[in-house]
Amino acid sequence: MGRSKFLLGGLFILAAVVYLIVSSTQQAAEYFMTVDELYAQKDAVLGKNLRVSGAVIGDTIQYDPRTLTLTFQVAHVPGNNREVEAMGGLAEVLKQAVNDPKRNRLIIVYVGPKPDLLRHEAQAIVTGRLGEDGVFYAEELLLKCPTKYEEAVPAQASES
Questions:
Q1: Residue by residue, what is the 3-state secondary structure of the chain?
Q2: How far is residue 38's CA from residue 106's CA, in Å, rounded to a whole number?
Q3: Counting CB atoms within 10 angstroms of each CB, which of 66, 74, 115, 126 has the fewest?
Q4: What is the pLDDT of residues 15-69, one digit of tens each?
Q5: Are the CB atoms for 113 and 143 separated by under 8 Å?
Q6: In whole angstroms, what is the distance from residue 68 CA to residue 51 CA?
Q7: What is the pLDDT of residues 17-26, one digit of tens each?
Q8: Exposed, middle or buried, 70 (CB in 10 Å: 0-12/13-18/19+)?
C-alpha cells in the first residue's frame, strides 16, 4: 500500500513537470517567417512572437536619437537557402528585393541604438510582434551586410 502511494505521487509529479515544460515551450515559441509568409498568415500570427527576415530599403530608414526610435521598411527575400543560391547569392537577392516595387514590404519599428550595419540592401532579421496596425514592433534587430564581406573573401582565399 505504501509503495503504491509513492508510485502514484511520483507519476503525478512527473505529469506536472511534463505539463510545465510543454506549456512554457509553446508560450516562448517563435515562428521564423519571410515577409510574404507573414502577410499570408497575418491574422493567425497577430500578437505572436515572430522572427522575420527581409532586405532593408535604405531610403526608408528614419532614426530619432532623442527617443531611440528606428523605423524602416524591409522587402521580401526568399527564406530557402537553395533558392537564394540559385538566384545568384544573398547579395544579388537583397539587391533585387529592394529594387522591385512589386515585392511585399513591411514597416519595422525598433527602439534602441541604431546599428552601424543598418544600410541599404542589408538583410534584417527582426524578432518581435506584428501589431494590429500592420507594423512589426521589433524587440531584437540583427543585420547581415553581405556586400561588406564579399570584398574580403578573395583576399582571404588567396592567403591560404
A1: CHHHHHHHHHHHHHHHHHHHHHHHHHHHCCEEEEHHHHHHCHHHHCCCCEEEEEEEEEEEEEEECCCCEEEEEEECCCCCHHHHHHCCCHHHHHHHHHHCCCCCEEEEEEECCCCCCCCCCCEEEEEEEECCCCCEEEEEEEEECHHHHHCHHHHHHHHC
A2: 9
A3: 66
A4: 777 766 666 555 545 568 999 999 999 888 888 889 999 999 999 999 999 999 9
A5: no
A6: 21
A7: 776 666 655 5
A8: buried
Q: Which amino acid is at 126?
A: V
The residue length of the chain stands at 160
Domains, the chain: 30-153 (2.40.50.140)
Cβ partners under 8 Å of residue 74, min gap 6: 35, 52, 53, 54, 55, 56, 57, 105, 106, 108, 124, 126
